[in-house]
Amino acid sequence: MLAGLDPEQRAAVTAPAGPVCILAGAGTGKTRAVTSRIAHRALTGEISPRHVLAVTFTARAAAEMRARLTVLGVSGVQARTFHAAALRQVRYFAPRLLEGRAMPELLDSKVRVVTLAAAKVGLRADRAAARDLAGEIEWAKSSLVEPGEYVIAAAKALRETPYEPAKVAEVFAAYERLKRSNGVIDFEDMLRAAVWGIEEHRDVAEQVRGQYRHFVVDEYQDVNPLQQRLLDAWLGGRDDLTVVGDASQTIYSFTGATSSYLVDFPRRHRGATVVRLVRDYRSTPQVVGLANAVISQARGAEARLRLELHGQRPPGPEPELRIFTDEPAEANAVAARCRTLVDGGTPAKEIAVLFRTNAQSEAYEKALTEAGVPYVVQGAERFFERVEVRQAMVALRAATRSIPGETPLPAAVVEALTAVGWAPDAPPPGGAARERWEALAALVQLAEEYAATPEVLPIGEAAAVERPVTLSDFNEELARRAAQQHVPTVDGVTLASLHSAKGLEWDAVFLVGLSEGTLPTTYARTPEQVEEERRLLYVGITRARQWLWLSYASARSPGGRARRPSRFLPQLDRSGGGERAGGGVAKRTAARRPATQIVSCRICGATLLAGPDRKLGRCPTCPSDIDEDLYERLRDWRARVAGAQKVPAYVVFTDATLTALAERRPGRTEELIAIAGIGPRKLGLYGEAVLALVDGAAVDDIAPQKTFEISS
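== DNA 3'-5' helicase ==
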């Protein structure tokens, strides 16, 4: 049972009964550790498997846990999501709790009832607005907030509400009344019913607690107050609880999830065993180093439990940071690289393109389609299958009959979209409404790009004429794109938002659109919201096993307003120059711009940010393998050169450069110029002498003309 576990995993598996907190970084084998802990305790006779309840947040994770336990020879453990566990208990106890009445029907979605509730209080909510109202109601109920408490609670939580908070509270109250009158319950009601059954019925509590005596909670940083209340009810004051989580992957606070229970676990459970899993078996040291560099800048409560990961895989390629003139160029480059990867043998299903919002997917759907690369969209519809996009295309076709043909295409598209409630000003509050607005804004952007390429019509044999593209032309272009992108695919490159990528991993990952205003989004206004955006990037980075690409576009569309790179990206020196990534790049074309390479420690693989560390090629804490004799000969040689040139010694080479030379011992010109601080000029002045010294020459053997030659 303990074979093959690393020391930290072994400590988690063999921890004594009682409260145990496993802080598990991305890729550190948390599922293996927690299932091995259950199996070890069961097979040694410490516990009975049928008395274990393991809860997680997805059916996929629960199924994986059950499968691993079966392989380990343990059966009978209940591994379920919070909702599945609560539903099972409520159904079982319903005859007793409801005095023989049938259990109410469970709503699959709140949207229909919320729409009716909004109408009851005088709001006409479209589907997007109803989704946002449903999200607010879910947040409130998950946070144990009642309708009458909503206004104050929303203000304290700095919620960005889809309507004025008092109006949302009215919809909330009307929603609750409609549910009761229709005899239905929602998922939060089901959790509350499970809590009520245990807290208010002693016989139910005794039976539940007699059945379940040992608890495991996965992804504990994502627990909300209602789920914690249910967990406390299950425990009934007992402390045989193992929780697993990573505060740096807290990215769902907008739903009511909070990492506070994970952060405060040792305080709430005195004497708890805390184990940190930091050996990353998923990603190369280069990817791990970048992840560490990004999350090392985190602030706030979650940063108190920040883990520094240590990559366990063999070294791989350096992550790449690419900068493009505009988003279409970025999408086309991503598609071309995907094509190269697939042609080189990487399965398409092992490649992912991750972005901040689903509305960004259209450019990548188009580019991948044109590159002949199959793709699938994770957790959302394809762009042209979205309800609002289909409605907009109907409105655009209808507008050809009412909008004058000479109207410029972008203006015609904006005018037509007003018929479906879109306006070209700031997007509305609420996540779903904002996403709908952004999807329609993407159509306007497409129109601007399409209008920038007038159609050339042949006239006779020797002349041609340009004519502006019309709304009818644009409708035909949209129909063509939709037809291409509606081709069904089975295995393909995954297109996904960073939120929906949580818990998944791929061999190759593209993180795109990493500019200010997108990541972090402009709607992240508080320090806590900004930190959650940083954690989103961290989650995205840690999805990559082998190959990682980060990119952003200097402008949204060709010739558009310049944008800055995301503040979360390490400020990396550009090879061959000193320019910072993102600084002054808007005027360059992507074709002439070399890729920015992230420099990693040649010993441990961590990303190097400080200039001296990048020059040495290692972390300051990693052991030096310096050749002391070579270092002293280099110092003597430098002193002679500086004396002859009548300049300070550091003008020739700094101490850090001499140390890098003595550690890395370059044998060829290519290796010499790869050391930061040695550019073409110094290579011409000193390169031959340095290579001779590295090869073993004495300082006195260096030809004077090679040592003291001064460039004009």
